[in-house]
Amino acid sequence: MDSALSSPSTGTGSGTGSMYLAGEDQTLVKLLVAGPFGVGKTTLIRAMSETPPLHTEEVMTQTGAAVDDLAGVREKTTTTVAIDFGRLTLPGNLVLYLFGTPGQKRFRPLWQDIARGALGALVLADTRRLADSFEVMDIIGEAGLRYAVAVNTFPDAPEYSVEKLREALDLHPDTPLVMCDARDRDQSVDALIALVGHVLAHTPEETPNP
């Protein structure tokens, strides 16, 4: 997408896509789903996408296991090697295009390409390894993107209060922080709504031409 926020012209179209372009103006928003390796990005996009999600997962090899830190995710056997992609329509004809980004350092150049034109990012975090989220948040900050943080509540992960998590992650006071089971569609959608609200609240309104 060349534009992070745009309103396409109306049209009914044909084929599979027509169910999403039923002659109504829609606002399209490109968002990233980011986070460290194995934090649940693919799971979240799979849970809430209204279209069959695009995944680029591959089985991890012994070579990859030697490069990627599997601490806390020993059961993980696959990894995203390019992008995940999903789509979600919110009330008001707001259409979210979601791009899941690889979490490993070696994919940083790819991340920068994917981030072009994005309006914001949902950062997934894991309480078993919160420190792994700092590099991701730094990259997003350097790109000038607004973001929200969703703590993925893994069954075996320690639980902390929202206040302690905000302190541990050193979040700005207005950065949204939500708890989210990435397998649960409703919770995943709520996390994205929190991000969208945060992004739109800091997006200047367009001034109409005279």
Structural notes for this entry:
It is a single chain. The protein is built from 6 helices and 9 strands; from the N terminus they run ββαβαβββαβαβαβα. By secondary structure, the chain is α/β, with parallel strands linked by helices. The strands form 2 sheets. Strands 1, 2, 5, 6, 7, 8 and 9 form a 7-stranded mixed β-sheet that branches. Helix 1 (41-48) packs across helix 6. Residues 1-23, 57-61, 63-68 and 76-81 have low confidence and may be disordered.
Number of strands: 9
Q: What helical percentage do the residues reach?
A: 25-40%
Poorly predicted spans: 1-23, 57-61, 63-68, 76-81
Terminal CA distance reads 28 Å
Instruction: Calculate the mean pLDDT score and round it.
Output: 78
Beta-sheet strand percentage? 15-25%
Rg (CA only): 17 Å
Main sheet record: 7 strands, mixed
Q: State the oligomer.
A: single chain
Class from secondary-structure proportions = alpha/beta
Order of helices and strands: EEHEHEEEHEHEHEH
Shape: globular
Number of helices: 6
Secondary-structure topology with pairs:
Elements: E1 5-6, E2 27-34, H1 41-48, E3 57-59, H2 62-67, E4 78-80, E5 84-90, E6 94-100, H3 108-115, E7 120-125, H4 133-142, E8 146-152, H5 162-169, E9 177-180, H6 185-201
Parallel strand pairs: 2-6, 2-7, 7-8, 8-9
Antiparallel strand pairs: 1-2, 3-4, 5-6
Helix pairs in contact: 1-6
